[in-house]
Specification:
A five-stranded mixed beta sheet has the order 2-9-8-4-6, with no helix packed on it. A five-stranded mixed beta sheet has the order 11-18-17-13-15, with no helix packed on it. The protein has a five-stranded mixed beta sheet with strand order 20-26-25-22-23, with no helix packed on it. The protein is mainly β and 504 residues long.
């Protein structure tokens, strides 16, 4: 048995360089043997074994060297190539193998050619077409971005494809259109130098360039321009001094219907206007053939454009309808209330309001308020106070509304009996009357004669007294201060019935 050991199972090599692999051979047999090694799976031109065999005694380990070298050529693609190192005993026939891999590192090399090297841009052929040929001399596929530029940024460049993929050893052709950004009417020929570049999309240091020239020719030569200038001057002189009649091409108003005081733009287009051209009413002078003016009519107005020139006078009219301006809205206080209108000293009252269309809001004696944000305010008056809410509208008018807060001492009841009556207040014996009451600011309400002591602030109760009875309503506030009111239900005996017959 022969054991094979390698100094490395993955041998990395750069194209054009060499690499070394040490192979250790151990003779596990009981007899001497001459052991030779072979490399399987690789091109024979990629490796060399200086000493292909060695004599190895039983149990002994000997080493052999394998040298690798690959050419720097697109034909040798970058990648990993597996191979087998096989050891064979020349006397015993025993073998031993070990697997490994050869990794060829990628390298980049580009070649760029431009055809033609020089082209011409004229009035009728503004863009010149160049053919850019890119050759990949490296050993792996390249993705390239194409660009072109000149030092003066005088030309525009457009590629048929601005990104291409070129395989190892392959060549791709791409069209490039070059056009000058400007072209003078008169001038001499100008020559632009430009550079076309192909650059790797994955490695900015990998690139290639080619230089080209674009000749730009002016539209007119100096001689031709001089002749045309003389002809133009002659034509202009004739045009300037020829008789020119005045004419109104257009006269418009925008808009043609407005609210009183709103702006209206009058626009005109006049051919050959002269002195005395104007717009009425207002005697507005017109000094240009095309222009605008802004007017603000207060009433319906008929505007008239009068144009004079060349011994003629022409006019055109346009009507502008004017609506009266609606009055500015005034403020409106829809609601101004207090949570209580009669309080003890030290109690807090919440003032609440609802106002429409106010631009300014003042609560006296508190101060200014925010008409858009404020909706209520808590106050704690020490004395009876009248709070006045003032709201100013867009028209400047001020509307007011007030609420009175009565402040009483702590020993005075703020409970208020607003109504207490009997309906009816006189009944016959056995008849029924209804007590009705309304109380405000009361913490407790009671009526004697067995009616109740936890009554609502507003209610009614049916009574059937046998004799004339006085009912007392007592209302207490939160401090126990009470007020009372009495009503009397008078009970009368029933009217006697008559036994006399009724005469028809």
């Amino acid at each position: 048995m022969i054991r094979v050991d390698l100094s490395a199972t993955d041998v990395a090599i750069e194209a054009g360089q060499t690499a070394q692999l040490d192979v250790s051979l151990t003779n596990k047999q009981e007899t001497d043997d001459n052991i030779a090694i072979e490399i399987e799976g690789l091109d024979v031109e990629w490796y060399a074994v200086p000493v292909p065999s060695v004599h190895v005694a039983p149990g002994e380990t000997r080493s052999l060297r394998v040298l690798f070298k690959v050419g720097r050529s697109p034909d040798v693609a970058a990648g990993t190539y597996p191979f087998v190192v096989r050891a064979r005993g020349m006397e015993s026939g025993e073998t031993g193998i070990h697997q490994a891999a050869l990794t060829i590192k990628p390298f980049s090399a580009l070649q760029l050619d431009l055809d033609p090297k020089r082209a011409t841009s004229t009035l009728f052929r503004r863009a010149s077409i160049f053919e850019l040929r890119i050759t990949n001399l490296g050993n792996h596929t390249e993705t390239l971005d194409l660009s072109a530029s000149d030092s003066d940024d005088a030309c525009a460049y457009e590629f048929e494809n601005d990104r291409i993929v070129v395989k190892p050893g392959g060549t791709e052709a791409v069209g490039l259109a070059v056009e000058p950004r400007s072209r003078p009417l008169v001038g001499s020929t100008c020559l632009y130098q430009f550079t076309a570049t192909a650059r790797s999309a994955s490695d900015a240091y990998v690139s290639a360039s080619a230089h080209g020239q674009l000749e730009r020719r002016a539209i007119l030569s100096t001689v031709m321009a001089s002749l045309l200038l003389v002809a133009a001057i002659a034509a202009a002189g004739w045009w300037i001094f020829r008789p020119r009649p005045v004419a109104i091409r257009s006269f418009t108003a925008e808009p043609q219907e407005v609210v009183a005081g709103d702006p209206v733009t009058l626009s005109w287009d006049i051919e050959n206007p002269g002195e005395g051209t104007k717009i009425d009413p207002g005697n507005i002078p017109v000094r240009s053939s095309v222009g605008t003016v802004t007017v603000k009519p207060e009433i319906p107005t008929l505007y008239k454009l009068v144009a004079r020139g060349g011994g003629r006078e022409v006019s055109r009219e346009i009507a502008v309808a004017v609506r009266p301006r609606p009055p500015l809205p005034s403020a409106r206080i829809r609601e101004f209330t207090a949570s209580a209108k009669r309080i003890h000293q030290g109690d807090v009252v919440t003032l609440t309001w609802r106002v429409d269309g106010a631009t300014a809001l003042v609560l006296n004696p508190i101060g200014e308020l925010n008409p858009k944000m404020d909706r209520s305010r808590q106050v704690m008056p020490e004395v009876t106070t009248t709070y006045v809410l003032s709201a100013q509208g867009q028209n400047g008018e001020v509307v007011t509304k007030s609420v009175d807060i009565e402040v009483v001492p702590p020993n005075v009841s703020i409970a208020e009996i607003r109504g207490f009556r009997a309906v009816p207040d006189k009944i016959e014996a056995g008849g029924k009357a209804q007590l009705r009451w309304t109380v405000a600011n009361a913490a407790a309400v009671e009526i004697d004669n067995g009616i109740g002591d936890q009554l609502p602030a507003q209610g009614q109760f049916d009574v059937t007294p046998a004799v004339t009875t006085v009912y007392t309503l007592r209302a207490s506030d939160s401090k126990g201060n009470a007020v009372s009111k009495q009503v009397t239900v008078t009970v009368v005996p029933p009217a006697p019935q008559s036994d006399e017959p009724i005469t028809p």
